[in-house]
Amino acid sequence: xxxxxxxxxxxxxxxxxxxxxxxxxxxxxxxxxxxxxxxxxxxxxxxxxxxxxxxxxxxxxxxxxxxxxxxxxxxxxxxxxxxxxxxxxxxxxxxxxxxxxxxxxxxxxxxxxxxxxxxxxxxxxxxxxxxxxxxxxxxxxxxxxxxxxxxxxxxxxxxxxxxxxxxxxxxxxxxxxxxxxxxxxxxxxxxxxxxxxxxxxxxxxxxxxxxxxxxxxxxxxxxxxxxxxxxxxxxxxxxxxxxxxxxxxxxxxxxxxxxxxxxxxxxxxxxxxxx
Length: 275
Prior knowledge:
Elements: E1 2-6, H1 32-42, E2 46-50, H2 56-67, E3 72-77, H3 86-94, E4 99-102, H4 121-129, E5 133-136, H5 143-152, E6 158-160, H6 174-184, E7 189-193, H7 196-199, H8 206-220, E8 225-227, H9 240-250, H10 256-272
Parallel strand pairs: 1-2, 2-3, 3-4, 4-5, 5-6, 6-7, 7-8
Helix pairs in contact: 3-4, 5-6, 6-8, 8-9
């Protein structure tokens, strides 16, 4: 089993602009020693470690951790797509066997059309050339733009983080479902079953989450869904154990082979088969 989305951070590094004291449950350092007993409790052998700061320094920090942490199977890092030498930076970073993908923090970028900038095309092509996954940290309004990126770069492997963060608290689903359907039509696009509980009302159970999980299963199928905890961010919404239990409940009706895909098989193929 693989947790396909988790983070580590060290506050003293100083490049986590979004991480403020107002987020008290997660405003502290988190490292491998904090996560290891949780993984053991759930029988999870490996993880994908994902960037949380838009700097190359943080990517180097995560790759250093991965070299000494056996359970980390791969790192999704960050590159400045707007830098003139971005394709060269992608090539250099791809030389580290621990790097499996890249994630610009699209949700935090003011320009909703940022994904479509022509200057980014060589960066996407460099990712394809070096076998790196594009982790799409997007919101529902970005999905039409992401679909156009997929049309332009059909060989690019894309993983949509957190189901594109549907507005579960508002109870809206139709526009999000339409956007996800357009993205899911591209066969090299995958989706993380992660982060949904953070977008839901406090204490929300399966009755609230099930329509969104069922939509993702219908659009992507188990072979293109991968479960992730989004730890430690998930501590803002009841914690690792609660989200794991909710997800397992939502997947309970799947046959064993499909269940195994979501909980590890898909992540193995998407992130690790080329490494």
